[in-house]
Amino acid sequence: MNLAFGIAMFFFGLFGFISIIGIFWALYKKKPKRIWIISVLMNVFLFIGSVALYNYLLTPEEKNAIVAQREQRKIEQETQKKAEQPQVNGQEKQDIAPETKSRESILTSIASKSLGKNFKKIEVKDFVDDSNKKIVLVYYNGSDGYNSTMAKKSMLIQTADLFEELFAAGIAIHEITAFIYTDMKNSNGLHESLVMKCQLKGSTAAGINWANINKTNFDQNLDYIWTAPGLKD
């Protein structure tokens, strides 16, 4: 390519030199019209001749390389145009969804499906040290009666399933605290309200293999747990 370019440039310069000589000759003879005609014709022939000579001297490999470069530039231009255009499909929709639907409504939907009729409410607050992370408070009734010997284990399974789903929601959660209630009465006939409080941090949840843990012993995975004195294991 360098040889072809060099030869083409040589003839380009030669034709340019001849064109300049012609213009000066016309000026010497004081023929302005001839100057204009000579200038136009010589420049046209100069351009066409140089391009034709350059293409003629190119080898097939050099021509293929030029075509490949043009195709690459075309692809890069098309890619840039697509990048500048607003996306309205696929991943773009997934990225927009959390912004158009509030985090609280997303988590509420997950909790209500997981807990069913036992779900009470959910609260989502900003973490003080990082507003992008959330503190989640979820309130619900225990899945078993207060006096049942399986009540605590049943509530732990219920809580483990809920926490797994909430942490998998794709929302940056610093910690989740569950407040578990029952409408049953204890052995003394007193009405009990809050019977269990469970807390799990996001950093702890990230290290849990949810598929393999024993959810009946989920209290061993929690960062904090409180149970009412009368709640049986």
Detailed description of the structure:
The chain crosses the membrane at residues 6-28, 35-57. Residues 92-103 have a biased composition (Basic and acidic residues). Keywords: Membrane, Transmembrane, Transmembrane helix. This protein is of the alpha+beta class and 233 residues long. It folds into 2 domains: 2-84, no CATH class; 101-227, no CATH class. Helices cover 52% and strands 18% of the residues. The chain has helices at 2-28, 32-57, 60-84, 91-100, 103-115, 151-167, 202-205, and strands at residues 119-127, 130-141, 173-181, 194-201, 224-227. The longest helix has 27 residues, at 2-28. It is rod-shaped, with a radius of gyration of 40 Å.
